[in-house]
Amino acid sequence: MLEKLMKELFSTEFLSFWYDNYDKLEAYLKQNRNGFLFETGSIDEELLKWIGIQSKIKNKIPLELRNELAALDFDFKQKSTSWEHRSGQLTNFAHTYGHTPLPADDEKYDELSNWLLQQIRGKQYLSESCFTRLDLLGVNWILVITRD
């Protein structure tokens, strides 16, 4: 049973899909070595999901694939987290517009807005580093939060 699963998991289709995403990430990294990997609209959501999966299964995939990932010199554990992704989006927004309050009437900011509200509500649970990063962006920590 396990042998069959391994053959299915690492089939030609799997490897083709894996290398397609690897190539996309490699090309992206060559163009975007600016410290904020996941800026709004700059990376395909499917590729972002793939990166997250690689972080979780990195030690379970064949050595050849692990070596390919290592060759990218990319910290999958740090960069693929949702917090890093969202904080990069907020940083990009703040640098573009000069503030962190997100437009309530623009659906493209809904997910980022929800994430920011979670950070504000749970600010006591943020690490000092995370709190400082958001604070330097000008996050309003006493923002009145309503259900509207």
* CA-CA gap between termini: 51 Å
H-E order: HHHHHHHH
| Count of folded domains | 2
Number of helices: 8
Helix content: 55-70%
How many DSSP E strands? 0
Radius of gyration, Cα only, in angstroms? 18 Å
Average pLDDT rating: 79
- How much strand content do the residues show? under 5%
Give the uncertain stretches in residue-range form.
Answer: none
Largest sheet: none
Shape: elongated
The SS-based structural class is mainly alpha
Provide a descriptive summary of the structure in words.
This protein has 148 residues and is mostly helical. The chain has two domains: 2-79, no CATH class; 82-137, no CATH class. Helix content is 62%, strand content 0%. The protein has eight helices and no strands. The chain has helices at 2-9, 12-31, 45-57, 63-71, 76-79, 82-97, 110-121, 128-137. The longest helix has 20 residues, at 12-31. The protein is elongated and about 55 Å long. The model has no long low-confidence stretch (mean pLDDT 79).
Put the structure in a nutshell.
By secondary structure, this protein is mainly α. It contains eight helices and no strands.
Question: What is the topological layout?
Answer:
Layout: H1 2-9, H2 12-31, H3 45-57, H4 63-71, H5 76-79, H6 82-97, H7 110-121, H8 128-137
Keywords:
2 domains; 148 residues; 62% helix; single chain; mainly alpha
